[in-house]
Amino acid sequence: xxxxxxxxxxxxxxxxxxxxxxxxxxxxxxxxxxxxxxxxxxxxxxxxxxxxxxxxxxxxxxxxxxxxxxxxxxxxxxxxxxxxxxxxxxxxxxxxxxxxxxxxxxxxxxxxxxxxxxxxxxxxxxxxxxxxxxxxxxxxxxxxxxxxxxxxxxxxxxxxxxxxxxxxxxxxxxxxxx
Length: 178
Fold this sequence. Notes:
This protein is mainly beta and about 180 residues long. The chain has one domain: Beta Barrel (Lipocalin), CATH 2.40.128.110. Helices cover about 10% and strands about 55% of the residues. It is built from two helices and eight strands. Strands 1-2-3-4-5-6-7-8 form an eight-stranded antiparallel barrel. The longest helix is centred in the middle third of the chain and has 11 residues. The two termini are about 20 Å apart. The relative contact order is 0.20. About 5% of the residues have low confidence.
């Protein structure tokens, strides 16, 4: 519900400085000498306010697919991210560099904000590329690392050699101006 409020606000005001998407992609990889775990969600939701460069992105943990087995996904949801208690990951804040949303091109930027995962909120600066495709469409890509320890995600000793401490995350989302 918290994520829907900006969309409802925009719907009633008819604001046209916002870029939105409901179907971006998030991929993550955990790679150790013993195992490589990959999962993808195509349900990344995002909104960027072009007037002040603020943003919010969120993904539901249960939307990830592609694990090596159903049991692996179950462990991810129940034991690691505890999706019943913490159903979403969210990143919201402000793009540090200026972007001219009316000029086609690629901008290398830093996004600073609060990254909330597993009930832990950490202020992070994440590098990203914002590609202005035309004045009505942009695409955001990013690659960054999440450290499980920072977010108090515990890996049982039995499988600690199969789950990496640092998880590589890739984001790719196209947003349309409302």
